[in-house]
């Protein structure tokens, strides 16, 4: 390491040798590249610093955490409110029986309880769901007849929001619980949540998602870490700090009065849950988050399904931001609430900025190498720490909170977690730009496969999405970053190589998985459905 050609020699020749100091002159061409490069880096750094802030809010307000067994008030004996459970489904023939059985086993007085199956399906799910509902309504297995009804729409007007609104018109409940098709609520879920509505002013209670198939594959393990970060630190930090946070569309319970006062379910965004959440909190209703109440769900097992889900969320949040943020900023809410709402609803703007950064990274690296290591250490390194390393710390902390004995294993997943975030850039940028320019698209449902064990084959091949050109674009950009890595090595700029390799890994990982998943089934003669579910990407 101390030899002339070792690490010591490298450091002396690259960072301590001042032979050519002062020769390089900054010109207008360099500025035209460096100014947008640093503007993007600074904006991304602000969003990165916000992740640190969420961690700080989470721990600073730990005493404000809500717990299921410590409600402010309780309903008296015989005073439990009527609860309606809504199950909005669309082409879910492989998971609907699991969902209905779980809901029928919920522990709650049957004279104050009903289940609505809100079916917008256009395939065999119609017959499957209707038959299952009829069985449980008449009594099935060890269960007595259940208060369950089947409601089918022949059109998908309003998509999920429209289905929930239709069900609400005939619902009997004062409280409305909602579960998507891939969820399996435990029997005690309603009783853990319901008493929190004895506190006046509580409009919604959200519970934490857990993962039925967390260990199915490497992809699902990374997805689980991403969602855990959202549910622990984003929901935890915001709810404990008393600022606005959102219902996640499922595994939560609403006060019916809250939905009405906030203006009801509206379908002009793809995230109708976040839209209603902000409208409800702006008219004075308070939300609670119960981190200690778990509701298991299924993670997407294919890259195309995961990308579809992430693109819908990215587009929907930008749509909601365009619709809601002006009202929030003009409201009487405290400044820190407005600031948090801004960060929350605009966070996905980082994806188009990542495209700009990807384009400028190589020329900026060449220019910066001529300006000396002092500037890079004082400017580039702090921006890199704020924008990139915050991601690592964010997810490490969330895993430490959930798994205090095994959280250290998350270090193994961090490079792939960061690479996956990079790999989603193309898909999510397209979704964000569609939202910014007002391009409408159908509600892109996430296909449910009902798999949990490693190696278990999916039986829901009919719901597989077409691939399109996006994976090829991702592979091409991965090749561009491979050239960037080659330049960094050839110019002996070794410290940038690990960072650049994240871009190569991210774009190639998402691109190749999108192209190869399902390839062997097609080659073996299994047909792919000619009309997959409608998508906007």
From TrEMBL:
- Put simply, this protein is called Glycosyltransferase, catalytic subunit of cellulose synthase and poly-beta-1,6-N-acetylglucosamine synthase
Major site of localization recorded for this protein: Golgi
Which PANTHER family has this protein been placed in? GLUCOMANNAN 4-BETA-MANNOSYLTRANSFERASE 9, XYLOGLUCAN GLYCOSYLTRANSFERASE 2-RELATED
Q: Which domain of life is it from?
A: Bacteria
User: Where does the chain cross the membrane?
Assistant: 34-59, 349-367, 467-489, 495-516
GO function term, MF aspect, one: glycosyltransferase activity
Which keywords, in A-to-Z order, does the entry hold? Cell wall biogenesis/degradation, Glycosyltransferase, Golgi apparatus, Membrane, Transferase, Transmembrane, Transmembrane helix
Q: Which SUPFAM superfamilies match?
A: Nucleotide-diphospho-sugar transferases
* Protein's UniProt keywords contain Chloroplast: no
Leader sequence range is none
- Its membrane topology, per UniProt? Multi-pass membrane protein
InterPro entries xrefs: Nucleotide-diphossugar_trans
Q: Which organism is it from?
A: Granulicella pectinivorans
Decide whether keyword Transferase is in the record: yes
